[in-house]
């Protein structure tokens, strides 16, 4: 009886603890929502009013109507286009390369894989300037192609996909080859369906990383019509530094695509993480 009560107490204490931790982590998000729905005069009122006395959508209206260097709606569409293209290019190139390195036996295959993996030890910040110089030589600066092109190479995605493809049952590949399938047909009809959870996981992570990226667009883009949402928010912060309700509204809107992407891919995302952990 005592042991049963102790177990119940431990369980209750565990749930109370994680609930408090979750509340602590979600407080900034709740503050963002509350601030975005306040009028300018109510933002700095002390003590903080978590529920505004007068709910106002003025910050959201101003966000799309104020005259700024970067139109907010245009920046949102730019970020969406760049994030989708980057995710597609990343997954396509990584999955093709992983399939080749996992199932094709060619000379120096292990050395090629080692060279790919060795680049993971190089910080991304180190390669930004060389990438910029190459793209400037190709006259791709200040273009969406220049933003997307470096994503054609992702050693971590390649390694994760290769490990999962190697763990796939060999009879599937043998049956496809006996039926006369070409290597690309095997890749399309056998490999892609079977690594769909991993692709979904990588897709969500790539989309989130690209959507939130600030430094690379800052280096590559100078045309206001081609700036991404992170640059627009940075410009909003510099021009409207004291308008917290405007900044919080912009940040909340910028979070929506990531939340939507995760909700739709949640099933694949969770299974992809678990499968990746088991097979790696």
Account of the protein in words:
- It is a single chain.
- With 280 residues, the protein is mainly α.
- It folds into 2 domains: 2-56; 65-279, MetI-like fold, CATH 1.10.3720.
- It is built from 14 helices and no strands.
- It has helices at residues 2-36, 40-43, 58-65, 72-103, 109-118, 124-137, 144-148, 155-166, 170-178, 183-194, 196-212, 215-220, 229-239, 244-279.
- Helix 3 (58-65) crosses helix 14 (244-279), helix 4 (72-103) packs across helix 8 (155-166) and helix 4 runs antiparallel to helix 13 (229-239).
- The radius of gyration is 24 Å and the shape is globular.
- Residues 273-280 have low confidence and may be disordered.
Fill in the keyword field for this structure.
280 residues; mainly alpha; MetI-like fold; 14 helices
Largest β-sheet summary = none
Q: Determine the N-to-C terminus distance.
A: 44 Å
CATH homology superfamily of the largest domain? MetI-like
Q: By helix and strand content, what is the structural category?
A: mainly alpha
Q: Would you tell me the overall average pLDDT?
A: 83
What is the radius of gyration? 24 Å
Structure summary:
This protein is mostly helical and 280 residues long.
What's the layout of helices and strands?
Elements: H1 2-36, H2 40-43, H3 58-65, H4 72-103, H5 109-118, H6 124-137, H7 144-148, H8 155-166, H9 170-178, H10 183-194, H11 196-212, H12 215-220, H13 229-239, H14 244-279
């Amino acid at each position: 009886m005592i042991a049963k009560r102790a177990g119940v107490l431990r369980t209750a204490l565990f749930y109370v603890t994680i609930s408090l931790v979750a509340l602590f982590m979600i407080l900034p998000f709740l503050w963002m929502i509350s601030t975005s729905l306040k009028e300018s005069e109510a933002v700095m009122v002390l003590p903080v009013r978590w529920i505004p006395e007068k709910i106002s959508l003025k910050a959201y209206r101003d966000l799309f109507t104020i005259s700024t260097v970067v139109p907010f709606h245009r920046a949102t569409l730019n970020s969406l286009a760049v994030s989708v293209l980057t995710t597609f290019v990343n997954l396509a190139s990584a999955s093709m390369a992983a399939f080749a390195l996992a199932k094709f036996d060619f000379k120096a295959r292990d050395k090629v894989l080692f060279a790919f993996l060795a680049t993971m030890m190089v910080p991304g910040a180190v390669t930004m300037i060389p990438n910029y110089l190459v793209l400037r030589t190709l006259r791709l600066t200040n273009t969406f192609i220049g933003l997307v092109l470096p994503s054609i190479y992702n050693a971590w995605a390649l390694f994760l996909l290769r490990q999962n493809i190697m763990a796939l049952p060999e009879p599937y590949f043998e049956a496809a080859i006996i039926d006369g399938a070409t290597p690309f047909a095997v890749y399309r009809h056998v490999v892609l369906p079977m690594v769909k959870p991993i692709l979904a996981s990588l897709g969500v992570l790539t989309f989130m990383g690209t959507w939130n990226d600030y430094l690379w667009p800052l280096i590559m883009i100078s045309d206001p019509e081609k700036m991404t949402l992170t640059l627009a928010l940075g410009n909003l912060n510099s021009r409207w530094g004291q308008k917290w309700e405007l900044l919080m509204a912009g940040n909340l809107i910028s979070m929506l695509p990531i939340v939507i992407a995760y909700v739709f891919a949640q099933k694949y995302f969770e299974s992809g993480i678990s499968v990746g952990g088991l097979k790696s």
